[in-house]
Write a structure and sequence with these properties.
Blueprint: H1 8-43, H2 50-69, H3 73-90, H4 98-119
Helix pairs in contact: 1-2, 1-4, 2-3, 3-4
């Protein structure tokens, strides 16, 4: 049995819903980036712990999935690059160097910058 092509109205509704979801994600992105930056900064130095680092890693991983599903490939790609850097850091018993920590913050800023570009 052959499937009928989807109704154009259904496609239009799905496109509108996807646009709405993208807009909502992008509207929340600056706050999410700030929260992640704050969490990362709080983990530095003596406060470094494996659970906090893993939670940070999971948040970045979630951002990859969500942004990728919404077709926001620049955000997903940058978050994926950040995740690759985090994989080794998460298992380390001590906080990363200041240079490495600053690099993570810079990558977060870069991800946040895509939100402004995507919205325009």
């Amino acid at each position: 049995m052959e499937r009928e092509p989807p109704d154009n109205q259904v496609i239009d509704r799905l496109d509108e819903e996807l646009k709405r979801l993208r807009s909502a994600f992008l509207a929340k992105l600056p706050g999410r980036i700030q929260k992640l930056t704050d969490e990362w900064n709080e983990l530095q130095g003596e406060a470094w712990n494996e659970n906090g680092a893993q939670a940070f890693h999971r948040a970045i991983h979630g951002m990859i999935g969500t942004s990728g599903s919404l077709g926001l490939s620049d955000i997903a790609n940058d978050a994926r690059q950040l995740e690759r850097r985090l994989v080794t850091l998460v298992e380390c018993p001590r906080a990363p160097s200041r240079e490495t920590a600053d690099g993570i913050v810079e990558r977060l800023r870069q991800i946040g910058g895509h939100g402004a570009v995507e919205e325009s």
